[in-house]
């Protein structure tokens, strides 16, 4: 029996080649795209889950609340927090580890080999008891116990020593003044880890027992491993008592309170909570929801194509059903036949879709920056493919099966079969659904594109063009080195400006955060949290930042190094000042928060707001502190603005000048605009993925409309012939036949516009700076017109083809 059903199904599929091609094309492309999106989404959801105890690892972050201010949240916490947690909560905390995350490049040297490693971390000795990073060489219980111990990743070890095993016992230098013995080599961190580092140095290397003022700062990341039976709700509540017991004394002078947040390790990558200092490159849940919806919509649209075409062909298969019922077929057998035909079609499409996935996966990995593979031997992957095949096959074949099997043989064989009104109504509803989704995709594509253009072209408040950034390193033996480099550079004809700064826009958050007493609007001194950026005298001109009020730092005024402060407009707004110039600020307090004499300064200038970070974040209150020329050798970055023309030669001169004065550290530079724009790389990748799959979704919908229009036109071929005999012109026939479809697209434009506006409004909330949704009004009009044009062209091609048939050939049997 099954063999007979299979033969009939294959015969029907081969007999109607266009119908079969349209369905297989739609289903195979839809399933291939859905599988690719599944791989992407699954990879995003897999972050940090590879750790054996991932479900019990949490990060403890900190919030601070100054008197009268809103709380501010930091992913980091106090250096003293981690050792306290197991002691205070022995029934809940199995291990706690602190991690000092290096966010900048550091020079590493072994003999004559020099490398810059980005983000060397410092970790407690029990790090490998919490995290499941595999050690190739070394004892996980001992590699980080001694001061000046370092664990290299496999790639770094090979770069220095050729083989990982050769690294053990070797001594390398960090910053040329810190000798570290290689005690272990670990596997490179997988890409689905929120922690990214090339090497781990023992915490004992930087621990200073004399420094007792560590509760008041938050510079470390604290991770806890809870015991198997510990309840996270209880720990979240209990950990708040740490502030009362240990921290309240340090904070009462600041008139501040503090507390903790506890985040699951596996949620960090997709966390939507905004921390002030979290520089981890995160994923985005909103994108995943959208991409998951796109994958589902693709499968639904492909299934709808099948349902539409099957019901449209109902008249052609009515006699088949009638005859089979007359000769004794049960309705259940007919239902099984049509479902088998649908599943068979889906199976063929699935095989083709797997081929498409294998062909497109390298390019998809290139665009997405991932290393996705399909493990067909994995039971979960095999189960997913089987589930997709059965679901799509049964969903797409269900209505045609029950609809076609319900025909009455007497009416059908007498030629009195008329397509039911319910079937026509369903087809119209499905077409509206298809094009509603397509229009939503068009709207989404355009808004994503417009937002990316907006963030590229928005005025940042500074000029990032033709600025070369050079990392510098402090050296107490040569404080004049950077001054000499600047002196030579500024004389070169290709150099326009040179300046020093502690950080640059787009680099590690752009600035640090500090708390210091500031005179408020009522004339009282209040502790205020603000971002702080150390700059040189030439920074303002170098960056092209505009002064709003007052003045910038001047070499002619010697007291500017300790008695002056420049802030931005956001700082003024936060303080509520009407007149900012002259307001008092204390640039230093002691360990108890008391003011230190000699460090009382005044606001001498206000600069216009400028973006130190991406447009995802709002501009924060910023204090620009002046660093004395004597200490510029300790500053982090040298900025050189080039003149237009001869860029290559100027870059060569900069490198030669660096090497002339700097003998220890290798020259390394980059262009500021490229670094700043890199912040949007993840958005652009996601945008490209969304745009590509949106286009494919629209294509699949058009395939279905093409098939439906083809069958509709063929069914009305006699009507067209009669109209031509009666004198109807081809344009009038096109208008008549296109009207029904265009009316459906108009309804789809309404529903798609509403859903698209709601969806993209939510997506735009990921950016602190964006155009409001109503300013994209032209996108909604354009999307509706584009959908109408696509539908009109699709339908018109088929109607025009049928309208060219000679009426005599059509009506000769009437």
Automatic annotation (TrEMBL):
Gene Ontology CC entries for this record: plasma membrane
Source domain of life: Bacteria
TM helices/strands, residue ranges: 21-41, 286-307, 334-361, 381-404, 425-449, 689-713, 744-764, 776-795
One Pfam short name: MacB_PCD
Domain ABC3 transporter permease C-terminal: 293-407, 692-807
Localization (cell): Cell membrane
Record has Transmembrane helix as a keyword: yes
Single Gene Ontology MF annotation: transmembrane transporter activity
Occurrences of domain MacB-like periplasmic core (ranges): 20-241
Membrane topology according to the record: Multi-pass membrane protein
Assigned keywords, A-Z: Cell membrane, Membrane, Transmembrane, Transmembrane helix
Name of this chain's protein: Putative ABC transporter permease
Species assigned in the record: Microscilla marina ATCC 23134
């Amino acid at each position: 029996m099954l063999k007979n059903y299979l033969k009939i199904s294959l015969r029907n599929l081969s007999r109607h080649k266009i119908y079969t091609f349209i369905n297989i094309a739609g289903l195979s492309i839809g399933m291939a795209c859905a599988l690719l999106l599944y791989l992407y989404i699954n990879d995003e959801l897999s972050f940090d889950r590879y750790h054996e105890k991932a479900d019990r690892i949490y990060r403890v972050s900190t919030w601070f609340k100054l008197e009268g201010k809103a709380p501010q949240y930091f992913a980091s916490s106090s250096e003293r927090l981690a050792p306290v947690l197991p002691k205070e909560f022995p029934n809940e905390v199995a291990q706690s580890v602190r991690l000092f995350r290096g966010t900048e490049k550091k020079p590493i040297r072994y003999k004559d080999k020099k490398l810059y490693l980005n983000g060397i971390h410092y970790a407690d000795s029990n790090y490998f008891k919490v995290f499941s990073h595999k050690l190739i060489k070394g004892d996980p219980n001992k590699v980080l116990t001694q001061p000046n111990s370092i664990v290299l990743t496999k790639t770094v070890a090979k770069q220095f020593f050729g083989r990982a095993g050769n690294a053990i016992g070797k001594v390398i230098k960090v910053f040329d003044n810190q000798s570290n013995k290689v005690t272990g080599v670990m596997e490179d961190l997988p890409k689905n880890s929120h922690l990214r580092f090339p090497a781990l140095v023992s915490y004992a290397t930087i621990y200073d027992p004399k420094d007792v003022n560590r509760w008041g700062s938050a510079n470390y990341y604290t991770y806890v491993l809870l015991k198997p039976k510990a309840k996270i709700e209880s720990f979240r509540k209990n950990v708040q008592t740490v502030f009362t017991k240990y921290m309240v004394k340090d904070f009462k002078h600041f008139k501040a309170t503090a507390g903790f947040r506890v985040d699951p390790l596996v949620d960090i990558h997709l966390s939507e909570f905004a921390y002030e200092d979290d520089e981890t490159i995160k994923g985005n849940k909103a994108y995943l929801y959208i991409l998951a919806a796109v994958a589902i919509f693709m499968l639904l649209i492909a299934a709808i194509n099948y349902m539409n075409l099957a019901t449209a062909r109902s008249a052609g298969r009515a006699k088949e059903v009638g005859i089979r019922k007359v000769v004794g077929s049960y309705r259940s057998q007919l239902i099984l036949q049509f479902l088998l035909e649908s599943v068979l079609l889906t199976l063929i499409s699935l095989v083709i879709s797997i081929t498409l996935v294998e062909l497109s996966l390298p390019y998809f990995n290139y665009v997405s920056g991932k290393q996705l593979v399909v493990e067909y031997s994995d039971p979960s992957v095999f189960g997913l493919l089987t589930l997709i095949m059965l679901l799509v096959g049964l969903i797409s074949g269900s209505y045609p099966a029950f609809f076609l099997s319900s025909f009455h043989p007497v009416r059908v064989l007498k030629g009195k079969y008329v397509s039911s009104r319910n079937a026509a109504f369903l087809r119209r509803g499905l077409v509206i659904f298809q094009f509603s989704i397509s229009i939503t995709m068009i709207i989404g594509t355009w808004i994503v594109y417009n937002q990316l253009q907006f963030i590229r072209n928005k005025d940042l408040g500074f000029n990032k063009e033709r600025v070369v950034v050079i990392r510098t390193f402090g050296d107490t033996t040569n404080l004049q080195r950077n001054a000499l480099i600047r002196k030579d550079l500024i004389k070169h004809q290709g150099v326009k400006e040179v300046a020093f700064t502690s950080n640059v826009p787009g680099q590690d958050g752009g600035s640090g955060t500090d708390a210091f007493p500031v005179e408020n609007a009522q004339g009282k001194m209040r502790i205020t949290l603000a971002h702080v950026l150390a700059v040189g005298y030439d920074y303002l001109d170098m960056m092209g930042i505009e002064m709003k009020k007052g003045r910038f730092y001047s070499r002619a005024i010697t007291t500017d190094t300790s008695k002056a402060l420049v802030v931005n407009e956001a700082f003024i707004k936060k303080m509520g000042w009407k007149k900012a110039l002259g307001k008092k600020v204390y640039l230093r307090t002691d360990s108890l928060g008391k003011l230190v004499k000699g460090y009382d300064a005044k606001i001498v200038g206000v600069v216009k707001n400028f973006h130190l970070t991406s447009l995802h974040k709002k501009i924060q209150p910023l204090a620009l502190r002046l660093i004395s020329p004597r200490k510029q050798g300790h500053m982090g970055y040298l900025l050189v603005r080039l003149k237009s023309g001869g860029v290559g030669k100027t870059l060569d001169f900069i490198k030669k000048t660096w090497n002339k004065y700097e003998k220890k550290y290798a020259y390394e530079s980059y262009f500021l605009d490229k670094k700043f724009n890199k912040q949007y790389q993840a958005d652009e990748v996601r945008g490209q993925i969304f745009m590509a799959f949106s286009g494919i979704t629209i294509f699949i919908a058009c395939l279905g409309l093409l098939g439906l229009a083809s069958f509709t036109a063929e069914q009305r071929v006699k009507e067209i012939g009669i109209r031509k005999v009666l004198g109807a012109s081809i344009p009038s026939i096109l208008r008549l036949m296109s009207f029904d479809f265009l009316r459906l697209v108009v309804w789809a434009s309404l529903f798609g516009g509403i859903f698209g506006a709601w969806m993209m409004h939510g997506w735009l909330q990921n950016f602190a700076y964006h155009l409001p949704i109503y300013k994209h009004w032209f996108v909604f009009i354009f999307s509706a017109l584009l959908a109408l044009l696509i539908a009109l062209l699709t339908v018109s091609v088929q109607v025009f083809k049928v309208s060219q048939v000679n009426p005599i050939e059509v009506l000769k049997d009437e």
